[in-house]
From TrEMBL:
Signal sequence segment: none
Family: Belongs to the methyltransferase superfamily. LaeA methyltransferase family.
CDD domains: AdoMet_MTases
Gene Ontology molecular functions: methyltransferase activity
Species name: Pseudallescheria apiosperma (Scedosporium apiospermum)
Protein's recorded name: Methyltransferase domain-containing protein
Amino acid sequence: MANQEAAASSPPGAEDANTRIEVDAAFNDDDSAYAASLVSDTTSLRTSFREYKWEHGRRYTAAEDTKYWGPNDEKQQAAEDLLHEMHKFILEGKLHQAPLSDPKTALDVGCGIGSWAIEFADENPACTVTGIDLSPIQPTFVPPNLRFEVDDINKPWTYPEGHFDFVHIRNMLGTVPNWTEFHKTAFKHIKPGGWVEQVELSSVMRSEDGSIPEGSAIQRWTGLFDDIGDKLGITFRAAESAYPAITEAGFINVTQRIIKVPLGPWPKDKRLKSWGQWCRYFSLEGMEGFALRSFVDVLGAHCLRSET
């Protein structure tokens, strides 16, 4: 998050990177209690863009000149909606942390199914909101101050310079070749005094007690995505790249906030236990879509479909 003004404070109860999470001694890893998910409308924006590609039993964008690896079918849309709800749950219902003051124009980069853009437009009826994505998978019944566009953020932006009060970026790991150049572009298109906010989940799994051993499957998972990024000319470490990229792009008063999110309901703290349930449920729902095309097409792995 960056601007020419003071940064917002951390969300109440947020776990920073230096806070150790206490394990619930009664936790049973066989517990199957997961958070509920909301399934989104799958109506397309344009009929001409419904000619999707089908690979490995999943549906992908029809764009020919993109390296994007993620599917856009109903299964992935459900996982994306779950992730949106998880972000809101962690941030106590807030859609952003930037202290916006009567924004008139906002851009949601990589809007996906449009959940964030729809809710932001509802909360800010005087703001013209634009959501862009490679796939027209957003609903048609939206607030009157919101429009969706099919576009590639890695191509030259068609908006006027100094146009937006707020540029929102979320869950864009593995999509941008150079985050510094991306934020330089965003800088040009934001009004003086405007805000940019980027929210990312780290692709690196970490433990506090050394319980992720060297060479374990979960550690190799991170390394495989580093290999995929190298081959595609992108990075899956958007969370780690955001702060230096935003700073190097010319923004000032840049705030970085790191929140620990457990994977699974193992924490003793009830709030963190709920976060862990959401995170594990999303991981299980979205893992196949996250890995399938990139592992098979880029790394040449065999396609082994797993059901959970």
